[in-house]
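Model the whole thing, not chain by chain.
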Amino acid sequence: MKNVYDVFMERGFVEQTTDDEAISQLLDRQEITCYIGFDPTATSLHIGSLVPIMALAHIQRHGHRPIALIGGGTGLIGDPSGKTEMRQVLTREQIDYNAQCLQEQLSRYLDFGEGRALLLNNADWLTKLNYIEFLRDIGRHFSVNKMLAAESYKVRLEKGLNFIEFNYMLLQAYDFLYLFKNHDCVMQMGGNDQWGNMLAGSDLIRRMEGKTAHSMTFPLITTSTGHKMGKTEKGTVWLDARLTSPYEYYQHWINTEDEDVERFLALFTFLPIDEIRQVRALTDVSLNMAKAVLAFEATRITHGEEAAAGAWQASSRAFQPKPVAEGLFPSSTIPRRGGAEDLSAIPSLELPLETIQSGMTTNELFFRTGLCASKGEARRLIEQGGAYINDVQVVSFDEKIDMHHTDALGVIRLRKGKKKHFLVIVK
RNA sequence: GGAGGGGUUCCCGAGUGGCCAAAGGGAGCAGACUGUAAAUCUGCCGGCUCAGCCUACGGAGGUUCAAAUCCCCCCCCCUCCA
C-alpha cells in the first residue's frame, strides 16, 4: 500500500526534504506526529493555505497524527521570510481573535476528535519564555553568520531587517523542539519559504536532543501564468464562506487555467490519482468538465456537499455548460445532469421597494450591490458596455430602475461582464 | 551620536514651482477573439451632485497668485562612520 509520502510525491506536494529516504521509511513503518504552522494574520485563511491543510488531511487519512499549530505567539513578531517589508504589527487582541477563528476553520478539514489531531497555539509556551534563559539555552545554538546567509533573510538584508523579526527563526525552531519533546512530533511541513526556519528546528533538535526530526516543504503554488495563489487584499479567495461565498469560491476554481487543472486536482481534491491523470487527454469542452469537477470537489471540501451542490447549480444555470460526462471522474459526486432552477447560491442583496422606486439609477444599483466599488466605476462599466440587467446590456448609466425590471418573483438579475452574476431581490 | 540618501496614488517607480489626479510598468476591471482557459489586441483604472468641484505625493506649519516640487520643525527607513 502507498504511504503518505508516496501520495505526497505523486500529487506534487514535495519541494524539498531533509531526507527523502528516511521520511518515506518513517511514514511507512509507524504512526507519527507531524506539524504545520499557520499564521493568524487574518480572521480567515485563504486558498494559499490550502496546500498545507490538504497535506495535514492526507497525513490524518493515512493514520498519522497531524498538529495544526496556530502561531499566536510568533504572530506577535511577524515572519520576515520572503517578505520585502516588515509586516504590520497586530495587537494581542487581534491575534487572539484570529487564532480562535482559524481553530474553528481548521476543524472543517481535520478530525480533532479523540486525539486524532491536535490544535495548538504557540502563544501558550512562547509568551511564557524568559529572555535570559531563552538566550542561554536556545540562542547559543544559533550562529548569526549562518542566519545571515539564510535565503529567507537575504532579501531583507538589502532592505533592512528588524531585530524582532530576526528572532523569528529561533522561535519557530523552538516550536519544533517543544512539539518534539512534548508531543513526539518528528516532522514539520510548510511552504518552501519556511525552509530556513524549519531546518533551524531540525538542527536545534539534533543539537539539544541528539535526535533526528525531519522537515519537508511544499512548492510555492503559482498558476501557470505566474500568479500567486490567494493574494492579499482585494483579490483574495478566502476559505470563510462569509468572506468568499461558496459560489464565488466555486467560480474561482472553475476559472483555473488549462495547464493547471491536473496539478490542482491532485493538490486540492482527494480524487484518485488515476482518474486525475485522465485530464491529460481532455481538451476544450471536456477539459471544462474537469474544471467543473475541480471546482465542485474543492468547494465540497471547504464548504460541504450541500454548498457545493448549490454553487454547481447556480453556476450551471448562469453559464449553461455541458454536464460532466458519466465516465469522467467516477469518484466525484458532482451532479451529472442539469439541476432545477436554483439561484440561491448566486450573491444577492435585498432592497426595499421604496429604494428602487425613489428613482435609483442603473449606476447606483451596480454600486449598491458591491459589484462596483464606486459610482464612477459603475458608470465607466456601463459606458464600456459591461453591465447587464436581465441579460440586456445597459446603455445609459442614469436610466431609472423601476418595477418593470423585476421578474414575477421580484428579482432583478445583474451581470458585470461575462462572469459576475448578482441578484437584487426587491422586497 | 555624526555624515549622506530616501519616504509619491493597490505595488514598483518617474516627477524637483504652474502644462500634475501626477510618466512608465505591474496588478485589477471591461470589450474583441474563445471553451466561464491562456496568449494577443483595445479601452478604463482617486471620489463626487462629473465640461465643474473635492481629496491626495510620510506628519504639522510657512513662503508664493500658484507647492509632490522651496523653507522650518517632527516621525520613519537606508548607507557609511562611531
